[in-house]
Amino acid sequence: MARPMKRRERTLTDVLVVGATSAIGSEVARSFARSGARLFLVARNAERLAAVSEDLRVLGAGRVETAVLDVTHMDRHAAVLQSAIEALGDLDVALVAHGVLPDQSRCEASVEETLRALEVNCTSTVALLTLLANYFEQRRGGCIAVITSVAGDRGRRSNYVYGTAKAALNTFLEGLRARLQPAGVSVLTVKPGFVDTPMTAGLPRNPFYADPRRVGEDIYRAMLAGRDVVYVPWFWRPIMAAVRAIPVRIFKRISP
Amino acid sequence: MAGCRTANTDGYRSWGRYPPAAHRAVIQVRWRSEPPDLARLEGTVLPFGCGRSYGDCCLNDGGTLLDASHLRHFIAFDEERGLLRCEAGVTLADILDLMVPRGWFPSVLPGTRWVTVGGAIANDIHGKNHHGAGTFGRYVSCFELLRSSGERLVCSPERNAELFRATIGGLGLTGLILWADVQLRRVSSSAIALERVRFGSLHEFFALSSEDQDYEYTAAWIDCTASRGRLGRGLYLRGDHASPEAAGDGAARPDGGLGGLLRVPFDAPGALLNPLTVSVFNALYYRSQISPRVRKVVPGEAFFFPLDSVRGWNRLYGRHGFLQYQCVVPDGEGGAAVRGILERVGRHRQASFLAVIKRFGDLPSPGMLSFPRPGVTLALDFPYRGARTLEMLEELDELVVGAGGKVYPAKDARMSADTFRSYFPLWRQFAKHVDPKFSSSFWRRVSGA
User: What does R_g of chain A's alpha carbons equal in angstroms?
Assistant: First the structure.
């Protein structure tokens, strides 16, 4: 899978990954590990973190440290970020990759369920980004990357609660990108389509499903290249452009 | 069950896509710290890796599959001894990608890199170096097995030794392998300095195979559509790891390069591979090598995994699928058994597109149901054409039983219970270790269960 690095790609060696045990998050971490990076991994489950850490060490990571965190416990964010900075000495990169696909019909029946889905998928990320933005701004360099989704490009009948969270993040990141541009910090919005992960395991397959390994590698390259918004795989960009172009009066009738 | 996802049951088939199977459920196992609670599942279960077994030993019609292909973490690597500990879903491709740049190589490689470590153990796979190295099971020093009781048993030649021997070649029936220790070997490069020799008859094949001990890797492609005087003509492939100087820069990279370009994106028409097209292809392929002997250095992927570069090549057989028949027959009587099989295949006029022949060595495997034994192995592919394909294979079984040989379960889709028992005399000892919750379409057929 390796291909020669482009000249403008930089080296990023001190990496924070939130949601490090997620399928996509762990694949991006693997790409970093292969290049010898040092990583700080954050997730909810200590044993899963241990399995991912061992794997990254065998792959070639210079160092791997971990912290257990449920991202909805916002009062702990600052302390965990501080541990990451202390463990690695510095942060070049922060990747935020956690998320849960909520059951849309349960959300429709329950305010609590909906708010919880928004908290996990949106508010917790916004809270993290508030702290990370300040750190990277004063550091004057580096990369913040967040996994959103093609679901955020348009509100669809079947998943608009999830779509809302991702759409909110897209806008937040757009603003953040402009704010951090003068400080030389790149802000990457990653929009995956269907990816073969535990999140989608129960859904029927279609030809658009992507392998998380390939998705992880694409995200890694986009981070090194300092890109702004990437669709993974690439073909989702034209697809979503077409979907966004559908007029509302038609979309409301056909929305899947 | 934490850590395990119920997945959609579409798309879990064997490589030959025959026989069909409908699974009740598929449980994806992702974390060895969160194994599935097998006792709570209804019906029987069977581990599933990459699905490269040809027939039905990786299928559990009406039952549940434990998709362990996501149990894919490396655990540790001892650089001094070359001992790799990894989860059972790690593939040989993953190991090659990681280890070739570090100068390490799997001790045994089959014809495709897309097999999991669990699958390699469960089928006790062999490769082109069997005559000198034996099977994969010889290089597994221990593994952890999850049983339906919830017990997690570490098995090795010293610990749970009987279960260790039953699980190697045990087709996933003794439990779910969670991780294993695999012994790698040092190589100077992954490139192979090969020699390819054209031979005109079975007699010439046997003469060439008597020189096998001079080469680490050997195998031959044989044209089984050739008849009479040309029976058993083919191309003999033999080689060793190239020195780094001979390998040059390009050959050392593990990535095949071609891998993504060639793909069979849909099922070919069923009649594409028929006796006429296959015999024409075979005649051209046999003649494609103009000089009788060719020597060159090739990248490892081209030598070990020529078919991996055509993704989905199994679809060339059409939607009805195909069967592979791989047998081993003891030496003796100048290859009369092999000749008999090739003649019988020729008489049925059922084209075998891919026919591989190789001499096995005599290094024993720890596995009770291990397939290789000293002699000659022949692997033939046949498009599935209904009853006449199955009848022909029954006739081949009679020849193989008569010769005292056996047929490889990893490729089998139809051997009968009686035939299985003659092929594998240790089957009763093996059956004692089959976990009561584990079963497969293959096992139900051959154990009469």
Answer: 18
